[in-house]
Design goal:
22% helix, Elongation Factor Tu (Ef-tu), domain 3, five-stranded parallel beta sheet, Rossmann fold, 6 helices, 2 domains, alpha/beta, six-stranded antiparallel beta sheet
Amino acid sequence: MARATVLGRLTWRVATVAAVRDETPGARTLVLDVPGWPGHLAGQHLDVRLTAPDGYSTQRSYSIASASGGDRLELTVELLPDGEVSPYLAGVLAPGDPLEVRGPIGGWFVWRPETPEPVQLVAGGSGVVPLMAMIRARAAAGADAPFRLLYSAREPGTALYRAELDRLSTGGSGLEVTYAYTRRAPEGWGRPAARVDADLLARAVWPPEREPAVFVCGPTGFVETVADLLVSAGHEPGLIRTERFGPSGGRP
């Protein structure tokens, strides 16, 4: 049975684009119907394969943005103008189009709704995608674990899921969201545009004595800096899980 499960995850499936949704001027969410999808955990990813008429194929990994539920899932793709895959996914693919996918993949960078400890999410740019899956999974399950998200974006217009995050973090929901902007902050914002630093982490994340489960996702440099700062602040290294991506246009 275990072997059959693993083989199922390695099987390419033909998904159908059910809908597309613009998140920002440079990012789009793809809503996919995937017959036979085995389900996934919040934080997992999948592979996407594109094949040209001449037989050339290429693939990339993308984090799943949605909570698990039936045969439908969502990917959010950030457009990289010089990318090989993202321009097609974020700019050409339309409802009704097929798309080859394989997964789910990954078992380390995941969150399960039955875990009660506080959760600290730290995102850099599109690194918020798998963390959003965790937030959505928490909401879908009605879980009580308190969540905090520290989201670093270049400027307000590049922050993904802003309206949904604002809605989910109101009314004593147990989700707290802090935004940090690195290039341009809104007028009157309490913190000037700057990278995440020790002072911001001290104010925005759960203190070490709460022993939160920490998930950090974003570009490699961002993830390494944040992880080092968290350890220096007293967080237990074994409770910090990281996911990083490089300049190739892959996950998240």
